Amino acid sequence: MFDHSHISSLARTPNANTRFVPGGPRLEAQWLDEAYSRARDLQAAPMTAPGLRIVWWRGDELGWFDLVAHSRVYAVVGRHMKCDVVLPSDPSVALRHLLLRATTLDDGTPALRVLDLRTSTGFHLDDDTEQRALVATGPLALRLGRYALVAIPSRAELPERRPSPEVIEAPRMPTHGGWSSPRRTSVTTMPPLPMLDDVARDVAAGGHARVTLRRGGAWASVDLPEAALDAGVLVGRADRCEPRLRAVLTESVSRVHVLLLREHGVVHAFDCASMQGMFADDQRVRRVRLPDEGGTLRLASKDPVLLEWHPRAPQV
Predict the structure, then answer these.
(1) Across all residues in the chain, what is the average pLDDT?
(2) Which of these, 18, 46, 74, lies nearest to 154 by C-alpha position?
(3) Where among 165, 190, 215 does a domain terminate?
(4) Is residue 316 part of a domain?
(5) What's the CA gap between 243 and 182, in Å, rounded?
(6) pLDDT the model gives residue 32
(7) Residue 11 contacts by C-beta under 8 Å, 6 or more apart in sequence?
(8) In this predicted model, what pLDDT tens digit does every residue of 8-66 receive, in sequence order?
C-alpha cells in the first residue's frame, strides 16, 4: 500500500498571502540583509507548527508560505501558477525552479533542504556563486533571479541582524547538525541533481532500483544507482529531465512532473506542481512513498503514462 497525502482541491489564487510594500534597495551586497529584516519583521500571525516560514521579496512584492516540518510537506517554487510559491515577475525564474523541504537530520537537528530542479540559473548565496543543492540550519537568505527568499525557523528567537552563513561543501546530505542554534546559520552545499549518464553506474553491484515508463505498447527503463536517488532524479518532458525516459511521455505529462528522491533510506516521488497530477491507488497525491515491494504510479489524468517502480534487494 502507498503512504500518501491527498489533494482535496487546487488553489485558484496562488500566493494569497502576497501583499505590497514600499520598494527596497537594488540588488547589491546588503540586499539579503534587507530581505532578512523584512522577513523578521513581517506583520503576520506567527507560525506555530515546527518548520520554517518562507518569505519572498522583490521590489513591492512580499509574500510568505509556512513550510511545516512533516514528511508529507514540501514546496515547489517557480513561475508556474500550480507552484506553492509563485514568483511571477522575473522571467529568469523557471516555471518550476526549486523544491524546498523542512526536514530533520539524523541527530534531530531541524534543517531546510533546497534542491534546484536542474534549471539554467540555479540560486545564489552571499558570495553570488551559483548553487544547485544545499541543506541549511538556522535562518537562511538566498537569491533566486531577482527575488530574495528568506527561511525563518518557527518558534525561534531570531537575531536582529542576519547571521553570516558558515558554508561547507559535501558530496551528500549531512547526517548531523549538532542541534544548531537558530541564531546562527550553517549551510552544506551539495552537487546538483544528476543526469544518470553523469553517474558512475554498476547495476549489478550498486544499482538500487529500476524505473519503467509505459504507454500502450511503448516503454522505457532506466536503472537508478543509490547516488542518483540521494541527489534526486527528474521525470518529465523538459530537456533537463532524464532523457532516456522522455520518448514515451505524452503532452499530458508536465515538462517537470515528478522528482524521485531518497531521504533517510526511503524513496519518495514528489509531484512538481504538475498540471494533471500524479496518482497512486487511483487517488491523486502530491507525495508518495515508493513501497519496498514495488508499485505503479500514474502520471496525468488524460492520456496517462504509468511509472513502474522496481526496487532491488540490498547487496550483501
Answers:
(1) 87
(2) 46
(3) 190
(4) no
(5) 41
(6) 93
(7) none
(8) 444 444 455 555 544 444 445 588 999 999 999 999 999 989 999 999 999 999 999 99
Q: Say yes or no: 41 and 166 in one domain.
A: yes
Considering only 89-93, 299-303, 310-314, which range has the smallest mean pLDDT? Answer: 310-314
Instruction: Note every long-range contact of 197-203, with CB atoms under 8 Å and residues 24 or more positions apart, other chains counting.
Output: 197/243, 199/225, 199/227, 199/228, 200/225, 200/227, 201/225
Q: How many domains does the chain have?
A: 2
* 72 and 94 assigned to the same domain: yes
| Host domain of residue 252 | 196-311
**pTM for the structure as a whole:** 0.89
d(CA 230, CA 65): 26
Mean pLDDT on 256-281: 95
